[in-house]
Amino acid sequence: MTALTIVTLAIAQILRKRGFSEEQAIGVVEAFREIDAGLLATKSDIREVEAKIETSAANLKVDILRWLVVTQLALGGFLIAAQKLLH
Fold it and tell me: 15 near 24, Cβ under 8 Å?
């Protein structure tokens, strides 16, 4: 477990200035102390996920374009066959 490093006194003082009671400020600081920093997403983690999403979106666009081309060719073939059958 990687502990989240925070300046507890400074945070408690800020919370007190914002209207928290002493007990509430201490409770919030203690809660933050319990956070496992390993579970928090870093900017690097977010960039990595964004890159994966962009890659997936690009792949999806290619798949949709392939499907569109194949269905249009199949429809064209069907129309040509139907036209030849009717003439």
Answer: yes
